[in-house]
Write a structure and sequence with these properties.
By secondary structure, the protein is an alpha/beta fold. The protein is about 55% helix and about 10% strand. The protein has a six-stranded mixed β-sheet with strand order 2-3-1-4-5-6, sandwiched between helices. A two-stranded antiparallel sheet has the order 7-8.
Amino acid sequence: MRNETLRLPLAAAGAATERPITIAIVAMGGQGGGVLSGWIVQLAEDAGWVAQSTSVPGVAQRTGATIYYVEMMPPANGQRPILAQMPTPGDVDIVLASEFMEAGRSILRGIVTPDRTTLIASNHRSLAISEKSAPGEGIADSGAVVEAIGVTARQQIIFNMDELAVRNGSVISSALFGALSGSGALPFSREDYHAVIKRDGKGVTASLKTFDAAFDRVVNPPPPPVVLENVPAKQAAPAAADPRFAGLLTSLRETLPEAAWAMAEAGLRKVVDYQDERYGREYLEILGHVQSIDRLAGGEAHHYAFTENAAKYLANAMTYDDVIRVADLKTRATRRARIAREVGAGPQHILGTTEFMHPRMEEIAGMLPAGFARWLKSRQGLYGWLDRKVNKGRRVRTYSPGWFLVLYVLGGMQWLRRGSLRHAEEVAHREEWLRCAYDLVGSNYELGVEVLKCRRLIKGYSDTHARGLSKFDKVLAEIRRIAPRFDAAVWARRLRETAIKDGEGGDLDGLIRTLHTLD
């Protein structure tokens, strides 16, 4: 990310200006946007200026991005100026964005312009709900924002202010305030900014520490990395092999082509972590069969893309989310340490989390022995009564003794998994998917690879898993139907990508109808 710190000629505080200085702040809930706008208003008023702020709550799919708008200017000839309540495209001097995509949205709104605007933004990402819940890789590309900032802002100050704030024990509003001071975009001294923070009276020490760190980061930016041409990059030393994996890794390298080693090793570690070493051997046995089919299909000419993709998506298929997995992940020490790090909790603090859980009888039955679970589901009256008892939302205090013990015991019940109804269903579905890929790869190598990639459509558990499974089955059925076409791989890719975006700019049923008209 390129950073520029340009010193703009500004009048001294209190001097007359021809027009108000206009500032737009785009922040999400909990990031202190209201506090920041209040600080800026106080900063101007301390200098004898007239300032006002307004806010418009947003409906973003996170916690709701809000636009705060501030206008300020000194009174002229003893008269108070009339200030506007909303930003006008092309007329905003400073934009402060608490998250990188919000900076991009500011550009789309037209409030960042190359002849006027100083853009101060954090380049970290807070993922939207649509990005988290999309099947496959749903994270929006930040590259377009990077390119747009370079041509749409007069001055840009971009770095990870969220990380800086967390490291200094405060929130991002303090970092944005410090970056604003360091930018020189307002005609007030550093001491004026300090006075505003001190007067606030809440978290003053941490806020000042964060402010100063951000100020120094802007005024004295780190030098760009030195890139030496024609010098090969230093290869990282391989990590010491985990003794539990030594034999499995040897088998992996003896069985699979080198092109698939990296992906297969990552998949193997994921599968063993999910269940056990025996499950890892099962993973490698399936991959061995995949590789033999790949070789017969001419995989060497395609750099064994079929085997490499199978290594990735088979691992995902074998590590499906179930009640046991969810409980295991929620009680891991690494998760608690991550949460403590994110909220800045130290040894002197008591950390607690409250989570919303809404299990269905479907998930409970899924972890029961397959025969008993099928018998239970066949008794509709009993099953419905149990579902009414179970299917309720609950707020769970994960680290309270009672709930932690329940989740910890549940997370340790991997030994139940192989005999469960859910596992039997997942294995049957997995074998059908692989069989389809095996059938097609011999006659159309690219199409076989596309079938493997369709596994991206399945993720999560409960309703999310059911929706993904429905789309997967629909796409796979259509791929089988169009397999004789010469361009089947192209259409298979379009079907998969449309299914991923279905409901948010994608129309899977519409695409399938279009395909039927081409027959």
